[in-house]
Specification:
alpha/beta, 5 strands, globular
Length: about 150
């Protein structure tokens, strides 16, 4: 695996880990300038903290990156996320025009990229990023499994 992919996913994993003390599902996201490799924004889930069902890591990272860049589109940028995006987040990734999506663990129940509705496979999808799944999947899966094991 490319060292840069691993480095960016490690940062996303650290973001995910930071969600655990807040009792948030540990998902982290990082948005990177695809040309320079510079990290633009990072986030973790804050659904519980903000009492906001849309406060997924991907959405928060997209909002931050757009604010930092002063634009509504993130063309030329890549997103790294520790869990396969849900339908809402896949839609946001499409609307933001992110260039590439890298994700870690598959989400059989809630994922919408490789599983579920397969959002990007629909002809009504306006923009489809390049998609690379399974990046550090084991680490992402272990973090999620441990979180939910401790909840039971």
């Amino acid at each position: 695996m490319n060292r840069l992919y691993s480095l960016n996913m490690n940062i996303a994993l650290r973001e995910a880990e930071s969600a655990v003390p807040r009792d948030e599902v540990p998902v982290g996201a990082v948005i990177v300038d695809g040309n320079t490799g510079k990290i633009i924004a990072r986030a973790s889930n804050r659904v519980e903290q903000l009492h906001d069902p849309t406060a997924h890591a991907e959405i928060l990272a997209i909002r931050k990156a757009c604010a930092i860049l002063g634009q509504k589109r993130l063309e030329g940028c890549d997103i790294y996320v520790t869990l396969e995006p849900c339908t809402m987040c896949a839609g946001a990734i499409s609307h933001a025009r992110l260039r590439r999506l890298y994700f870690g663990a598959m989400d059989i129940k809630g994922g919408a990229v490789e599983n579920g509705v397969k959002f990007f496979d629909h002809s009504s999808c306006h923009h489809v990023p390049e998609i690379y799944g399974g990046i550090q999947e084991t680490e992402s899966h272990k973090l999620l499994t441990a979180f939910f094991r401790n909840k039971r």
